[in-house]
Amino acid sequence: MIERFFLGGLAMLGMTSAVALAAETPASLMARYAQEAGIPVSALSADRGAALYRTDHPGRDAQPVSCASCHTDSPKQPGNTRVGKRIEPLAPVANRGRFTDAAKVEKWFRRNCQDVLQRECSAQEKGDFIFWLSQVK
Amino acid sequence: MNYFLRGISVLTTVSMVSVLAFSLPSGQAHGDGGDYVLPQLKNKNWQQECSSCHIAYAPAFLPRASWRRLMGGLDQHFGENASLDPATQADILKFLEANAADSGTSQMGRRVMQSMGAKDAPLRLTETRWFTHKHDEVQPATWSRKSVGSAANCAACHQKAEQGRFDDDSVRIPK
Asked: CATH code for A24-134?
């Protein structure tokens, strides 16, 4: 009887951790990127994240380009792709699905850092970026 | 017979004839809805990934050789990085090739191929002769309207583009 409770408890624990692995949160991604950068989470900076979002870089046809070019000045607003399709807001306060899927987050950092900065983003930059967006009210 | 009953019988005959007339020619030889309606296709990766930035363009708009070129250069996709992990990329290419314009699976694809050279492999479906012919009445100023953006934004005018319907009745050009 006790044994059965014990096994049932173990199975439930296993299921809970599987769910936890599948669904990330902005906080868990920040922790992951801070660890990858070899710094404590407290060393991430929302100000640096905001600057990364807003700073213009020379893009195609010498036109300045930044994250805000497509995502608009406010990450709480929907943006537009070059073809004209709506982009859902980036800030979790306006879009709860943001920063809950590690593979998706990595895919878009890989693509968009190349497009805007012409290079990959560092783990610290990714952490800063999520930190700033997650505290936008 | 009074006029009321006669009216009903005339109406019934007319509607039956028109139902027959309109239902016979469409899709009898092909599995799709003819020239303007694409077959309903299902591929999770194609639907999810290709519709992130634009509508998921139907495979029937370009030949296999085009899709191979396009999917081989996703890191420079019309000036943007649209790279995918190798497994997803391979799955989408397989799906595109199986349903491409020259795969013989749709009437739309046959139309696209009729005006395509044997060795042509355009990257932009808006540059196929089929597309330019179909849109020859659209003025350049219309394409560049803010509400349209570009010729690649099918859904700006084709209200049912995402469901694969491109018939004239579902076209509404925004101001």
From this structure: 1.10.760.10
